[in-house]
Amino acid sequence: MNKKIHSIYRAIGLPRLIILTFFIIVLFAAGFYNMDILSLLSNVLRRWGMYGILVLAMVPSIQCGIGPNFGVSLGIVCGLFGSLMAIELNIANLSIFQGNETLGAFAAILFAILLSSGIAWIVGVGYGILLNRVKGSEMTVSTYVGFSVIAFMNILWVTLPFKNGDIKWPIGGEGARNTISLENSFSEVLNKAGAFTIGNPETGLYVPTGLLLFFFLLCFLVFLFMRSKTGIAMSAAGANPNFAKASGINVNKTRIIGTALSTSLGAIGIITYAQAFGFLQMYNAPLMMGFSCVAAILIGGASTMRAKILNVIIGTFLFQGILVIALPVANKVLIGTDLSDIMRMIISNGIILYALTKAIGGATNEE
Hints:
Blueprint: H1 2-12, H2 14-32, H3 37-56, H4 58-64, H5 73-88, H6 101-132, H7 138-159, E1 179-181, H8 189-192, E2 196-198, E3 205-207, H9 209-227, H10 229-239, H11 241-246, H12 251-277, E4 279-281, H13 289-299, H14 309-333, H15 339-361
Antiparallel strand pairs: 1-4, 2-3
């Protein structure tokens, strides 16, 4: 019996056990303070789907051997560009979609996904070539690349000659606004697809079916890819490059494929996030997203050398669940103070700090 408990403990890992316990504690605390738990859980489900694909982007990068992709910002800016093009070209409101706003919204998000993921794949190939030249320092270089591309794109966002009124500054200027509404394009199109409420329509548990199904679909597709011949070769190259090379696997090529796939998933992920949020957040808004994604997947049980789809699903749920529930609980506990936001920062940044120490140290939870 003790051996069985010990094996379960080792499988879960102390950090995840602590985080899961903390999640349960704050959930009970929310009930103790008579908070609307179903509303909080609805928000957890929404954010689970919002962030899930961005976290999923970590799987191919870790498996191919470059480690957690702190440079996922490359894919994010490609996703933002694809979304801007969908708005600029007014895809959702083309004449062929008149009278069917939902179809237009789906066409717009599909256009954004296809355009941005294609661009992101090309960018990811170049990014992979760069990382092949700095083997051993991928995480450091990818962090600098992520920060640099955000700074570079800030210049482009403010200078590109957008014409659509939803994008450009309202008073005499070109360039994109800080926050761009998706109301006239593809706002919440996935959230509302097949959505339903468990219990009272006003206060029940709202399930964004389309958003979650899209997240799970991409998880399944990545799972199938990782089981394919290319995916297995990629994982082998990431686990033991020398053995893979001796077996005839082109290690550099598999690393480029993994990096490109991670970058494309980052582009799709930010589009999914933006439609659920209802806005595009431009300029420095995506700067730290890579850190949160790395934190989530490591909390889910991944290491810097191995990652599974299950790590993505569990890690994203725990990470977002704690952030969603802990903040309103802190507001109740610390009435009349501004410490609730500080508590949110401590919780989120504490999780990220744990993730970064794991990444830098190269350790696993099982070691």
